[in-house]
Amino acid sequence: GAVVSQHPSRVICKSGxxxxxxxxxxxFQATTMFWYRQFPKQSLMLMATSNEGSKATYxxxxxxxxxxxxxxxxxxxxxxxxSAHPEDSSFYICSARDPQGGWNEQFFGPGTRLTVL
Amino acid sequence: xxNVEQHPSTLSVQEGDSAVIKCTYxxxxxxxxxxxxxxxxxxxxxxxxxxxxxxxxxxxxIAVTLNKTAKHFSLHITETQPEDSAVYFCAASLTGNxxxxxxxxxxxxxx
Lengths: 117, 111
Hints:
The complex is a heterodimer.
Chain A: E1 4-7, E2 10-13, E3 19-25, E4 32-38, E5 44-51, E6 57-58, E7 67-73, E8 76-81, E9 90-97, E10 106-108, E11 112-116
Parallel strand pairs in A: 2-11
Antiparallel strand pairs in A: 1-3, 3-8, 4-5, 4-9, 5-6, 7-8, 9-10, 9-11
Chain B: E1 4-7, E2 10-14, E3 19-25, E4 32-38, E5 45-51, E6 56-59, E7 62-67, E8 72-77, E9 86-93, E10 99-101, E11 105-110
Parallel strand pairs in B: 2-11
Antiparallel strand pairs in B: 1-3, 3-8, 4-5, 4-9, 6-7, 7-8, 9-10, 9-11
């Protein structure tokens, strides 16, 4: 299947700082990428849908000014957690759709563990 | 919106036995049902999926069944091995964009 990478895999930051997480589709062009958040021993919760060249669509309850999403190219989407606080500590996972592949398949990245001190 | 329930939340089986995980969904329009395996500290990996026009799909030791009338689908793993130990998530999709995930099943295969 298609490969999606994330960087960094782990990040520790101080409260009040901003953190950028990158999501890349390595062997396909992804017009749509998704950002999920996962708390320990819980399911994945969709945060936003990122479409190349347009504004992201945020799920209800997700602060778009806090979680900035940019999808500037067909292979890269970024999630910036602005003014991070301890409650933002979580596992952030991106996924991407391969338009040339299965019509519904989403390929997930390995995730980024964010710890805010 | 769609609501996906998954059972059981934890499952322990002896190596070589079968494991079954069940999911129900609420929106009869959902038409794509993938299953993901997630190992600790990693992202989910697609292991098998089924579309609403198919009742059953099998891939070696893994099979998925779908009952559209009852709105439930199940994952079957036969001849389980210790490396099958992980958290498994089901999902349902209506449009192909929005995935609604189940709450996960932690599977432990005891050697």
